[in-house]
């Protein structure tokens, strides 16, 4: 089930907010529909929102082209709307990364504006294809952490799978490869409150594919670890800073603390587009705060008193000390992360 399809005319997004009960697609010909879909988590997961935004820029360019004005006017309108897209979610760096990459192409372009639309589309296609390849490589590199191991049991949090990327997923990419190799015994998926990406998406994705999966509430992770059910944790990431601090779905930090307490390796799987080489540490990562209703209600039904104060950060930051290794397409990064991430940035792993 592909989360994102570009057919040359429109961007078709699988509405993940309705999964697993309803499989519905949104046909976007207006980039504003993509902004709404990103904000409402109809399309979600760091790499997937980067790919969706890249295609949305084709829609922006097409709209701008229909307006009267000089090349400069059109360029300004394009950049203005690209910024609106970029602000649709603040934590996942892949969104800003994909938009910046296309903006650079547009700004370097010489000639009439209509000519640039084709090159935006080509770049969006390249970003999507690249993401597929990155997922494959991350999966393969992840296998090196489990050499000779059989019957591996992995805990994952949120959804860093095919629904969150253009390919087989990052964390779930490694899990898929382990399964294909006959090394995986079972995946334990945290349900991931408040929006249930683990229950609705990860368990859906893996269950459909016949990969053994056990769903647990977030509060059951400690029990599962204490009982000796878990051999390793693998999660995705929304942004990784140059010291190896990792922003990921709220609750990930807690899982990392638990993993440390039980001497279980905690792995993060992410492509280079998830690294923010401009930030020194996780305190600089903007954390998205979301609506109270996500916590106070479930499927439109109140589960808390009306008006109660709510804390609803969408992400937390796991300090690098708790991260055993980071699995990238270029290889597995080990501490000292300042050194290994700098090598990744220079492409000399
Ligand atoms: O709020 P979401 O569902 O977009 O959060 C997604 C995550 O936290 C994922 O783990 C992360 O984006 C990596 S997806 C490969």
What can be said about this structure in brief?
With about 350 residues, this protein is an alpha/beta fold.
Descriptive overview:
- Catalyzes the interconversion of methylthioribose-1-phosphate (MTR-1-P) into methylthioribulose-1-phosphate (MTRu-1-P).
- Belongs to the EIF-2B alpha/beta/delta subunits family. MtnA subfamily.
- InterPro entries: IF-2B-related, IF-M1Pi, IF_2B-like_C, Initiation_fac_2B_a/b/d, M1Pi_N, NagB/RpiA_transferase-like.
- With 349 residues, the protein is of the alpha/beta class.
- The protein has two domains: 4-134, translation initiation factor eif-2b, domain 1 (Four Helix Bundle (Hemerythrin (Met), subunit A)); 139-348, Rossmann fold (3-Layer(aba) Sandwich).
- The chain contains eleven helices and 16 strands.
- It has helices at 31-39, 46-66, 71-86, 93-108, 113-143, 171-180, 197-208, 221-226, 252-261, 293-296, 337-346, and strands spanning 4-6, 11-14, 25-28, 152-156, 184-190, 213-216, 232-235, 239-241, 246-249, 266-269, 275-276, 297-298, 301-302, 315-318, 325-327, 332-333.
- The strands form four sheets. A seven-stranded mixed beta sheet has the order 6-5-4-7-10-15-16. It has a four-stranded mixed beta sheet with strand order 11-8-9-14, with helices on one face.
- The radius of gyration is 20 Å and the shape is globular.
- The mean pLDDT is 97.
- 5-S-methyl-1-O-phosphono-5-thio-D-ribulose binds at residues 41, 44-47, 92, 158, 160, 164-165, 170, 197, 236-238, 248-249, 314.
């Amino acid at each position: 089930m592909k989360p994102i399809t570009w057919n040359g005319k429109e961007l078709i997004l699988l509405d993940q907010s309705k999964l697993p009960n309803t499989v519905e697609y949104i046909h976007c010909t207006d980039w504003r529909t993509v902004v709404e879909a990103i904000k409402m988590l109809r399309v979600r997961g760091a790499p997937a929102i980067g790919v969706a935004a890249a295609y949305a820029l084709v829609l922006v360019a097409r709209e701008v082209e229909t307006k009267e004005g000089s090349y400069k006017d059109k360029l300004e309108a394009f950049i203005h709307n690209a910024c609106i897209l970029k602000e649709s979610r603040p934590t996942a760096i892949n969104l800003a990364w994909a938009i910046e990459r296309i903006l650079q192409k547009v700004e370097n372009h010489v000639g009439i504006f209509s000519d640039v639309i084709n090159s935006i589309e080509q770049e969006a296609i390249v970003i999507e294809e690249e993401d597929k390849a990155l997922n494959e490589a991350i999966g393969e590199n992840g296998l090196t952490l489990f050499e000779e191991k059989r019957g591996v049991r992995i805990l994952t949090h949120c959804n860093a799978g095919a629904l969150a990327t253009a390919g087989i997923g990052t964390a779930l990419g490694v899990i898929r490869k382990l399964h294909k190799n006959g090394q995986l015994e079972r995946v334990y998926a945290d349900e991931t409150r408040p929006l249930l990406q683990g229950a609705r998406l990860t368990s859906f994705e893996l269950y459909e594919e016949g990969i053994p999966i056990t769903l647990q509430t977030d509060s059951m992770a400690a029990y599962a670890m204490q009982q000796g059910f878990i051999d390793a944790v693998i999660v995705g990431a929304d942004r990784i800073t140059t010291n190896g601090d990792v922003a990921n779905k709220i609750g990930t930090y807690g899982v990392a603390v638990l993993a440390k307490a039980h001497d279980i390796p905690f792995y993060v799987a992410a492509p280079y587009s998830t690294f923010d080489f401009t930030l020194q540490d996780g305190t600089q990562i903007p954390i998205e705060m979301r609506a109270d209703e996500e916590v106070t209600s479930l499927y439109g039904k109140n589960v808390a008193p009306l008006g109660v104060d709510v804390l609803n950060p969408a992400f937390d930051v796991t300090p690098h000390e708790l991260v055993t290794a980071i699995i990238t397409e270029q290889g597995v990064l080990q501490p000292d992360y300042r050194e290994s991430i700098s090598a990744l940035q220079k492409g000399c792993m």
